[in-house]
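Appendix C: a fully annotated inverse folding record. The material below is reproduced so that readers can follow the format used throughout the book. The structure is listed first as tokens, followed by the designed sequence.
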């Protein structure tokens, strides 16, 4: 099996920013509640007509440039998203055309907030066994398109963005271990009830606002802390490492209280935890993707460092990964 690593990263956050003060004018909430309960101050929102593939193309272009590759060098495109441009075709297919990655294999992965880790892991397998050479993996969401802007329980949480990584064979370092999993018995605590084959779109489903994300946040909180802790422990065990070896943890950004509780349980100091939730909110599969890109850009990840990705979301899925930089 070949060694596989990340050789380029990119990010795109839409220009429009929605602050907590803006939300105070839309629903019965306050900057104080949002800040203390979630750690979020502002989030980026896609413009009307700006689709997931548009965000993905900008992040993907940057990642290719960072990797020093041309679009035609990419032979595999995997997009992690729950907010594709349309139910079919995949965002990956639309992205292939937008970026000129002719003939590359293309598909999307639906693993919600763990989607980027799932997608990186999938690309890893394909490259390690020699089926493909260079993969573009994107975590992208336009969650504003499935957010109920009348529901204060959810609308303060989410944002839009895209993060991209190019994976290829590397001589040293690379992906060391992965731990993916799911508890499918808890799909009811976080879902979009209508718009799929189980409940196709009708006037009634639209009137009942069933095409928006519904979340039992309080119920999820504890599960998130326990699951992310367990996933991180297992990924490190598989890598033969301990938490003292970790230089930076890139967690899914659902809530800063969840993240800091996980870090505390794991015994990882706060200065080894990367956070962009204050500026970006929860961007599902784009959260770990953008956080990794920003951490690398800011010099928080150096050659030889051990980086731990740790994500959890609707499914309920989890994905943790150890990467040697
Ligand atoms: O990304 C996928 C995974 N997602 C997660 O893991 C999310 C996990 N959950 C959370 O992050 C938190 O549960 C939330 C941030 C969603 C909510 O925080 P909480 O501390 O669990 O609040 P809560 O749901 O228990 O609500 C407490 C109170 C309620 O009022 P009462 O019933 O005590 O009177 C809510 O109605 O806060 C109220 N509330 C709000 N108040 C002001 C809920 N949303 C708001 C709001 N502004 N936006």
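Designed amino acids, in order:
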């Amino acid at each position: 099996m070949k060694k596989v690593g990340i050789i380029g990263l990119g990010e795109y956050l839409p220009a429009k920013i929605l602050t907590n003060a803006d939300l105070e004018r839309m629903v019965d909430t306050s900057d104080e509640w949002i800040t203390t309960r979630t750690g979020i101050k502002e989030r980026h929102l896609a413009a009307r007509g700006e689709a997931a593939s548009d965000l993905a193309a900008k992040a993907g272009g940057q990642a290719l440039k960072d990797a020093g590759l041309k679009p035609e060098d990419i032979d595999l495109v995997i997009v992690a998203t729950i907010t594709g441009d349309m139910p079919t075709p995949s965002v990956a297919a639309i992205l292939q055309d937008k970026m000129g990655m002719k003939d590359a294999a293309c598909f999307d992965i639906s693993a919600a907030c763990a989607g980027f880790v799932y997608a990186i892991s999938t690309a890893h397998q394909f490259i390690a066994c020699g089926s493909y050479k260079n993969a573009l993996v994107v975590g992208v969401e336009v969650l504003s398109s499935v957010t109920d802007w009348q529901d204060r329980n959810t609308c303060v949480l989410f944002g839009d963005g895209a993060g991209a990584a190019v994976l290829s064979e590397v001589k040293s370092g690379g992906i060391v271990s992965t731990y993916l999993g799911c508890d499918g018995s808890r799909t009811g605590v976080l879902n979009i009830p209508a718009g799929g084959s189980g409940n196709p779109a009708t006037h009634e489903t639209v009137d009942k606002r069933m095409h928006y994300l519904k979340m039992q946040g309080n119920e999820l909180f504890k599960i998130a802390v326990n699951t992310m802790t367990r996933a991180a422990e297992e990924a490190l065990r598989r890598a033969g490492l301990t938490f003292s070896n970790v230089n930076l943890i890139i967690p899914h950004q659902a809530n800063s209280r969840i993240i800091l509780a996980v870090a505390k349980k794991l015994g990882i100091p706060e200065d080894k935890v990367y956070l962009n939730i204050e500026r970006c909110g929860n961007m599902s599969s784009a959260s770990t993707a953008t956080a990794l890109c920003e951490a690398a850009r800011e010099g928080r990840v150096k050659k030889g460092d051990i980086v731990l990705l740790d994500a959890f979301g609707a499914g309920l899925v989890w994905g943790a990964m150890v990467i040697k930089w």
